[in-house]
Protein backbone atom coordinates (compact mmCIF):
# COMPACT_ATOMS: atom_id res chain seq x y z
CA UNK A 1 0.00 0.00 0.00
CA UNK A 2 1.41 3.37 -0.94
CA UNK A 3 1.89 6.31 1.40
CA UNK A 4 -1.07 8.18 -0.13
CA UNK A 5 -3.36 5.14 0.17
CA UNK A 6 -2.49 4.93 3.86
CA UNK A 7 -3.46 8.57 4.35
CA UNK A 8 -6.43 8.92 2.01
CA UNK A 9 -7.53 5.33 1.64
CA UNK A 10 -7.29 3.15 -1.39
CA UNK A 11 -9.89 2.46 -4.03
CA UNK A 12 -9.78 -1.21 -3.07
CA UNK A 13 -13.05 -2.41 -1.62
CA UNK A 14 -12.66 -3.42 2.00
CA UNK A 15 -15.37 -5.39 3.70
CA UNK A 16 -15.15 -5.62 7.47
CA UNK A 17 -14.44 -9.07 8.84
CA UNK A 18 -15.96 -9.29 12.34
CA UNK A 19 -18.68 -11.90 12.50
CA UNK A 20 -21.23 -9.62 14.19
CA UNK A 21 -21.93 -7.69 10.96
CA UNK A 22 -25.02 -8.40 8.89
CA UNK A 23 -24.68 -6.83 5.48
CA UNK A 24 -27.19 -4.57 3.77
CA UNK A 25 -26.77 -5.19 0.06
CA UNK A 26 -30.36 -4.96 -1.14
CA UNK A 27 -33.63 -3.23 -0.34
CA UNK A 28 -34.80 -6.54 1.13
CA UNK A 29 -31.81 -6.56 3.51
CA UNK A 30 -32.68 -3.02 4.58
CA UNK A 31 -36.31 -3.97 5.18
CA UNK A 32 -35.17 -6.95 7.25
CA UNK A 33 -32.96 -4.69 9.38
CA UNK A 34 -35.84 -2.31 10.01
CA UNK A 35 -38.17 -5.21 10.83
CA UNK A 36 -35.56 -6.71 13.20
CA UNK A 37 -35.62 -3.46 15.20
CA UNK A 38 -39.03 -4.48 16.56
CA UNK A 39 -37.38 -7.37 18.44
CA UNK A 40 -34.20 -5.57 19.54
CA UNK A 41 -32.11 -2.52 18.77
CA UNK A 42 -30.53 -2.37 15.35
CA UNK A 43 -27.45 -0.32 14.53
CA UNK A 44 -26.66 0.46 10.88
CA UNK A 45 -23.09 1.54 10.16
CA UNK A 46 -22.73 3.38 6.85
CA UNK A 47 -19.13 3.25 5.65
CA UNK A 48 -17.13 4.71 2.78
CA UNK A 49 -14.41 2.27 1.76
CA UNK A 50 -12.37 5.13 0.23
CA UNK A 51 -12.31 7.42 3.27
CA UNK A 52 -9.52 7.25 5.83
CA UNK A 53 -11.69 8.83 8.54
CA UNK A 54 -14.44 6.29 7.89
CA UNK A 55 -11.93 3.43 8.06
CA UNK A 56 -10.50 4.69 11.34
CA UNK A 57 -13.92 5.17 12.94
CA UNK A 58 -15.01 1.73 11.71
CA UNK A 59 -11.97 -0.03 13.20
CA UNK A 60 -12.42 1.73 16.57
CA UNK A 61 -16.13 0.92 16.60
CA UNK A 62 -15.50 -2.75 15.75
CA UNK A 63 -13.07 -3.07 18.67
CA UNK A 64 -15.67 -1.66 21.06
CA UNK A 65 -18.42 -3.95 19.74
CA UNK A 66 -16.25 -7.06 19.97
CA UNK A 67 -15.58 -6.31 23.64
CA UNK A 68 -19.17 -5.48 24.54
CA UNK A 69 -22.14 -7.45 25.72
CA UNK A 70 -24.70 -5.27 23.96
CA UNK A 71 -27.84 -7.01 22.76
CA UNK A 72 -27.89 -5.19 19.43
CA UNK A 73 -27.94 -6.40 15.84
CA UNK A 74 -25.22 -4.67 13.84
CA UNK A 75 -25.71 -4.01 10.13
CA UNK A 76 -23.09 -2.75 7.70
CA UNK A 77 -23.67 -0.74 4.54
CA UNK A 78 -20.88 -0.09 2.04
CA UNK A 79 -22.33 3.15 0.80
CA UNK A 80 -20.08 3.37 -2.25
CA UNK A 81 -21.29 0.01 -3.52
CA UNK A 82 -24.88 0.72 -2.47
CA UNK A 83 -25.39 4.47 -2.64
CA UNK A 84 -29.03 3.91 -3.64
CA UNK A 85 -29.64 2.15 -0.32
CA UNK A 86 -27.87 4.92 1.57
CA UNK A 87 -30.17 7.43 -0.11
CA UNK A 88 -33.20 5.26 0.73
CA UNK A 89 -32.15 5.18 4.39
CA UNK A 90 -31.90 8.98 4.39
CA UNK A 91 -35.29 9.37 2.73
CA UNK A 92 -37.23 6.68 4.57
CA UNK A 93 -35.75 7.21 8.03
CA UNK A 94 -35.36 10.99 7.83
CA UNK A 95 -31.66 11.07 8.67
CA UNK A 96 -29.41 13.28 6.53
CA UNK A 97 -26.70 11.25 4.81
CA UNK A 98 -23.25 11.32 6.39
CA UNK A 99 -20.20 9.09 6.17
CA UNK A 100 -19.28 7.40 8.34
CA UNK A 101 -22.61 7.25 10.09
CA UNK A 102 -24.28 5.12 12.75
CA UNK A 103 -28.07 4.96 12.85
CA UNK A 104 -29.80 3.20 15.73
CA UNK A 105 -33.36 1.88 15.31
CA UNK A 106 -35.99 0.65 17.73
CA UNK A 107 -39.45 -0.39 16.55
CA UNK A 108 -38.64 0.81 13.03
CA UNK A 109 -37.84 4.35 14.22
CA UNK A 110 -34.52 6.16 14.52
CA UNK A 111 -33.73 6.64 18.21
CA UNK A 112 -30.17 7.85 17.79
CA UNK A 113 -27.64 8.68 15.10
CA UNK A 114 -24.18 10.13 14.82
CA UNK A 115 -21.42 10.64 12.31
CA UNK A 116 -17.66 10.83 12.20
CA UNK A 117 -15.95 11.03 15.60
CA UNK A 118 -19.31 11.16 17.41
CA UNK A 119 -19.94 7.50 16.59
CA UNK A 120 -19.83 5.48 19.78
CA UNK A 121 -21.11 2.21 21.11
CA UNK A 122 -22.89 4.19 23.83
CA UNK A 123 -25.37 5.35 21.16
CA UNK A 124 -26.77 1.84 21.10
Automatic annotation (TrEMBL):
Pfam families: BrxC
Endpoints of the signal sequence: none
InterPro entries in the record: BrxC, Thioredoxin-like_sf
Record SUPFAM superfamilies: Thioredoxin-like (SSF52833)
Protein known as: Bacillithiol system redox-active protein YtxJ
Amino acid sequence: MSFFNKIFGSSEEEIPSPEFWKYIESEEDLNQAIAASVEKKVAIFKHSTRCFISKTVLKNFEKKVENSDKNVEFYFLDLLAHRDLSNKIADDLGVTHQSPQLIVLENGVVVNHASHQSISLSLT
